[in-house]
Amino acid sequence: MATANHNLSQFYSELPSAAEMRFGIVVAEWNPEVTEALLEGAIRTLRAAGCPEKHIQVKHVPGTFELTLGAQFFAEYTEVDAVIALGCVIQGETRHFDFICQGVTQGITEVQLHWNMPIAFGVLTVENQQQALDRAGGRHGNKGDEAAAAAIQMVHLQLEMDAAAPDRELDRRSVN
User: Fold this and answer.
1) Structure confidence by residue, pLDDT tens digits, 61-93
2) Among 88, 89, 99, 159, which residue's Cβ finds the most Cβ atoms within 10 Å?
3) Helix (H) or strand (E) holding 141
4) Buried b (16+ CB within 10 A) or exposed e, 138-164
5) What is the pLDDT of residues 109-162, one digit of tens each?
């Protein structure tokens, strides 16, 4: 297993400042012990990168499948620079797991491409509760931290690209 004895939340480069960035976080209510830990990790990473609390909006949706529409609502109705989608799907006895995982993965990809906005994928797809806990602040780190870091890096990249495109009208704030 690729994650054996490895903390996936160790970053290999310093994150850009998130002091001027705005984030929406959409969190699945299903598996709350796991998803609330992911949320704590995401907020911790955003705050550590300088994002003010007032620039972080959190909304809950019933389950992981609804993360896609929740992310789209953030893109459509708010002024956030990126969305962080946090959820957890644990393998059960039926193929429901496969359908939910495929749907949310494809849906998040479609939303970010349609809205030209980073949507960080902080969804755990695991075989059991212990694997989820190991990746929600346990021995393998916190996927919420990782998703927040990805969102910060992608917003920074988008701002750099906007600033470097002289023939485009900038639709984001300039990079400092």
Assistant:
1) 999 999 999 999 999 999 999 999 999 999 988
2) 88
3) strand 141-142
4) eebbbbbbbbbbbbbbbbbebbeebee
5) 999 999 999 999 999 999 999 999 999 999 999 999 999 999 999 999 999 999
Q: How many other CB atoms are there within 10 angstroms of residue 47's CB atom? A: 15
At position 156, the amino acid (one-letter code) is: H
Query: Can you give the pTM of this predicted structure?
Result: 0.90
The residues assigned a catalytic role are 96
Question: Looking up tokens 């690729």, which residue turns up?
Answer: 2
Kindly write down the DSSP assignment for every residue of 67-119, as one continuous string: HHHHHHHHHHHS--SEEEEEEEEE--SSTHHHHHHHHHHHHHHHHHHHHT--E
For residue 159, the one-letter residue type is L
Residue 163, helix vs strand vs coil: helix
Please give the angle made by the CA atoms of 94, 90 and 10, to the nearest 5 degrees: 150
